[in-house]
Amino acid sequence: MFKVHCLNSISNFGLKELNTRYSLTDSLVDADAFLVRSASLHEQEFNPQLQCIARAGAGVNNIPLERCSEKGIVVFNTPGANANGVKELVLAGLLLSCRDLVGGIEWCKKNANDEAIAKTVEKEKKNFSGIEIQGKTLGVIGLGAIGAKVANAATSLAMKVIGYDPYISIHAAWSLSSKVEHATEIQTLLEKADFITLHLPLTNDTKEMINESLFNIMKHGTVLLNFSRDTLVNEIDLKNAIEQGIIKKYITDFPNPTVMHLDNTLVLPHLGASTEEAEDNCAQMAVLEMMEYLEHGNIKNSVNYPNCDMGHCEATSRIALLHQNIPNMIGQITQVLAKEGINIANLINNSKGQVAYTLIDLENKIKDTTKNELESIQGVSKVRIIKM
Ligand SMILES: NC(=O)c1ccc[n+]([C@@H]2O[C@H](COP(=O)([O-])OP(=O)(O)OC[C@H]3O[C@@H](n4cnc5c(N)ncnc54)[C@H](O)[C@@H]3O)[C@@H](O)[C@H]2O)c1
Ligand SMILES: O=C(O)CC[C@@H](O)C(=O)O
Question: ACT domain: from which residue to which, for each copy (predicted)?
Fold first, then answer.
């Protein structure tokens, strides 16, 4: 029986995939797997039994990936599963930035009892007027699942779109409209854009990437949309850029004590992925990835371990080893198995950066003592017996 702990509310559409081999547990200490959305796991201790963490969403900056890799915990996310939900909110943000819709709605509410409101409004509405997006230039930084959808949608709304992504995947590049101009340098995008939208992950490399030096290249009166993560932007520099009129409006999906007090800023309550469809898609994908790993040892959409698919085990037994990506690891593993007279039916060894994953089907049963011996190989983080 696998025990699963949910750190956030996970849609039942995903949880209903769990079969009789699973139970939900309220306890973090005896769980084999965590299902999580945005809860931070940076301060969380991980028990030795924890095999995987499935993030029902895209960003994994709430998970200590390096510590997970050291402990042989596979972290999954759900690429693209909430991209449409975020795209639709970005479009709403774009339009909210053009006219003072929020101020206008508040004005109407405040004047609800004015019998002459229909007349008064014609005098007052100029206070809430603005511009159109048609013909304006949108700069999209990060052209992955969300950025590509935003870029394509903006071209359909008659915007000029310029995109920047030095690490774009082939899949994302194929999905991009040919109308999207390709910027090889971020400076080109910053100089041309009337609106800039951020769709890149928060990592050590991208933290506070939007700072004074980039604000100084932007046009006076730029609108900045941030539906990715707050700390991609240096908020002290942002405040200055707003005061200097470089940033006309900042639209963000991430409330924090600083942005709540900035002028010309609209803050949304982290709603990008909060649609029924996105929550269902993310939960289902996360649960299925977790089940495939727990039951069969196959890895799909992990952010810290390589993909690996050996199908379902038809041999006598199956073991999985999570280890460092160092020389002679396979030699040492096969030596232990050979010594026990165990014959290998099939073996896959894939690596990702500093770590590697070896999945082995065996023609003999595997004993706990063999597992212990494999675990004692220097550089092995975890050994799982998937089928005895
Ligand atoms: N507001 C929300 O609720 C919400 C929902 C989903 C995702 N997000 C955020 O949006 C981010 C993007 O999500 P996604 O699904 O599009 O992810 P994704 O992995 O599909 O795309 C990210 C893209 O950013 C690019 N990139 C990485 N570093 C870059 C850099 N320095 N400059 C330019 N591009 C760079 C990558 O090459 C990739 O194409 C997530 O990491 C998450 O933080 C927010
Ligand atoms: O879980 C959520 O509601 C938000 C998820 C979002 O920030 C993501 O990175 O996918």
Answer: 318-388
